[in-house]
Amino acid sequence: xxxxxxxxxxxxxxxxxxxxxxxxxxxxxxxxxxxxxxxxxxxxxxxxxxxxxxxxxxxxxxxxxxxxxxxxxxxxxxxxxxxxxxxxxxxxxxxxxxxxxxxxxxxxxxxxxxxxxxxxxxxxxxxxxxxxxxxxxxxxxxxxxxxxxxxxxxxxxxxxxxxxxxxxxxxxxxxxxxxxxxxxxxxxxxxxxxxxxxxxxxxxxxxxxxxxxxxxxxxxxxxxxxxxxxxxxxxxxxxxxxxxxxxxxxxxxxxxxxxxxxxxxxxxxxxxxxxxxx
Length: 278
Known about the structure:
Blueprint: H1 17-24, E1 29-30, H2 37-45, E2 52-53, H3 61-64, H4 68-75, E3 81-83, E4 106-108, H5 110-124, E5 131-134, H6 143-150, E6 155-158, H7 174-190, E7 193-195, H8 214-226, E8 231-232, H9 235-243, E9 252-253, H10 258-264, H11 270-277
Parallel strand pairs: 1-2, 3-4, 5-6, 6-7, 8-9
């Protein structure tokens, strides 16, 4: 959790224990470390149905370096490995990828499986017609996703967030003009209906009743009454749908940001590959 530089108290997992105990209905035991003699003793002393939470693995630099020895130590206290953290499936770290080489069986959890079923299904065998909405402030990081989607969708809607961005930094600036033109030509060649913003409005305020939830409401309606499959991904999009009170009306709310994007781009997620090979 977080990006600690060594042992950093504010990134400790200890504050999670009360809530985790409440959710699981058992008294969760937390170790002061993630490897070592204390962890081994606590693991050995666990009663059937007991839960042991290891301390933040990112306190060790070996975690993000996917150090084999660190992964081996993590694996040494368990008999089975279940990865249910789809949000980190694109990161080959010791606790997510390396540990599968030393601990078998290694399997995907229910959430991981659900994410893969929806997202892989959307890429490999999408229901038709297939529409995608791509937006956010980091449009440049989604070019690969856009190009991949052009080969699969019937409709592609592109948005973006120009806030705090000088006009010369927008997608259509001269240095990106060639790329933008190429994407438009690819869409035409593939018969994809490409919908782009055509204008902007500069104002110091918005009307309180502005219909900013119209698209979310329409998606919810299509999901609940027409059997349409709706997948929401990305932190801002998920937060917007939840704020609108419509999350439970969508088919799937993805927990992955970067992992979702890489999967939609057609990339292989290292954690998923490791589980397949375990």
